[in-house]
Amino acid sequence: MLRITLLGTGTSHGVPMIGCDCAVCRSTDPRDRRSRPSILIELRAGPIQPRAGADGVAGSHVAAAVRTILVDTATDLRAQALAHDIRRVDAILFTHSHADHVMGLDEVRRFNVMQNAGIPCFGDAQTLADLRQMFGYIFDPPAKPGGRIPQLTLFPIAGAFSLGAVEIVPVPVLHGRRSILGYRLGAFAYLTDCSSIPDESWPLLAGVRTLVLDALRHRSHPTHFTVAQALDVVARLAPDHTYFTHICHELPHAATCARLPAGVELAYDGLVLEVADD
Ligand SMILES: [Zn+2]
Ligand SMILES: [Zn+2]
Ligand SMILES: [Zn+2]
Fold this sequence. Notes:
The protein is α/β, with parallel strands linked by helices and 278 residues long. Helices cover 19% and strands 26% of the residues. It is built from eight helices and 14 strands. The protein has a seven-stranded mixed beta sheet with strand order 6-5-4-3-2-1-14. A seven-stranded mixed beta sheet has the order 7-8-9-10-11-12-13. It is globular and about 55 Å long. The termini are close together. The relative contact order is 0.19. The structure holds zinc ion (ZN) (3 copies). One zinc ion is lined by residues 12, 37, 98, 100-101, 193, 246. One zinc ion is lined by residues 17, 20, 22, 24-25, 249.
């Protein structure tokens, strides 16, 4: 089994948004408090064997001991790690390099210290190039760094690969005009920041039973699915359970969920999903 914790389910501003007095930003429902988007994936306990035959990235030598995978290092990573008592991060998968998905990268120093090890990071070539540029103090450090910096190794993704006992299938999706990555593990898929799924990615999603999918709001947006567009994806894929994420302050949790079809709901920070990994 995979245990998935939705660490953050909000759009880039987070909810409540700074300086906003709308009903959702002022809501007392804790499900209306949305930090920046990220999930934690914990692999099943017990002996872990690297799966044979997976192709893709270099770096499988780091994979055998992987138990806990973080997807993106969101701006709110520190608060998320404290809220959920995260003690280990064995690998990081990046979807893309937008600020809301990477600005917590410095927080992984704590995991470096606790684990006494570097952390392998996986992403597409564009994302890794952006990280090198955005975090020059990490990837091109001065000769005498002023303090401890994250210890990270970047591995470009070139297809499906294995971490621990599970196969990671990168799923290219369009986020506006930019191609970014969603990820599939077993019967679970995480597609944040998505406005279109290209033809070649639909087969990668066949048979997904639990889907976490971008649905920003009802009004159209150039780089994110609306609720109606996300429901079209749900109709085509027919997963058992779908949870919408990357939600802005225009969708109140309870009222929105009441109008969604059976099997579809808004995710919320702290939601835990248990799904089969094969
Ligand atoms: Zn608001
Ligand atoms: Zn984005
Ligand atoms: Zn985003």
